[in-house]
Write a structure and sequence with these properties.
The chain has helices at residues 15-33, 36-63, 71-91, 95-126, 162-171; strands spanning 129-130, 135-136. With 172 residues, it is mainly alpha-helical. The protein has a two-stranded antiparallel ribbon with strand order 1-2. The longest helix is centred in the middle third of the chain and has 32 residues, at 95-126. The radius of gyration is 18 Å and the shape is elongated.
Length: 172
């Protein structure tokens, strides 16, 4: 199974986010390299880290008017629920399930980081959000309404994609 390695493509230029992502990559590698005797424990560490990681990003979104119902947060919830199911199945002896999930995370994580996390990072930088203190240093840059899409350019949220909304209205 190919390993995920930290690279500049995963770098968001937000130190706390980048450190968290580097730790995710490291813990995922630990899972991939674990023998059967320690696999479940390594997986549990990855799941615990991922819970903290997603909770932190979700909190940043709340502080900066990404709606709690946006697709970025929803994806966090789905992935974490699947990972927790992997823990249950691994604890019952289905180690192949954990190994398959780890393999899928190698594919999922870069796509998630380069789309959804990159959009979040851009948003956080635009509003000059300090993820350590929770202070928005450019409150005038906050969106007037909550962002209900993921903030990625592939989303067609009228708050984040006004030109797309205008094009849809013209076509109607």
């Amino acid at each position: 199974m190919p390993a995920l390695e930290w690279s500049q493509e995963l770098c968001m230029n937000l130190p706390l986010m980048d450190e968290t992502h580097q730790e995710f990559v490291m813990l995922l590698a630990d899972v991939q390299n674990a023998d059967d005797a320690i696999l479940v424990g390594r997986w549990e560490r990855l799941v615990e880290h991922t819970q903290d990681h997603f909770d932190r990003e979700d909190q940043w979104m709340v502080h900066t008017r990404f709606a709690s119902s946006n697709c970025h947060s929803s994806q966090h919830e789905v992935v974490l629920n699947i990972m927790k199911e992997g823990t249950r199945r691994g604890q019952s002896g289905e180690l192949d399930v954990i190994r398959q999930m780890a393999s899928e995370l190698v594919v999922w994580f870069p796509a998630h980081a380069q789309a959804m996390d990159a959009a979040l990072a851009t948003h956080l930088q635009r509003v000059r959000y300090d993820p350590i203190t929770g202070v928005v240093h450019a409150p005038e840059a906050l969106p007037a309404e909550e962002i209900h899409g993921c903030g990625d350019s592939t989303c067609s949220d009228p708050v984040t994609q006004p030109e797309d909304q205008a094009a849809r209205e013209m076509a109607a």
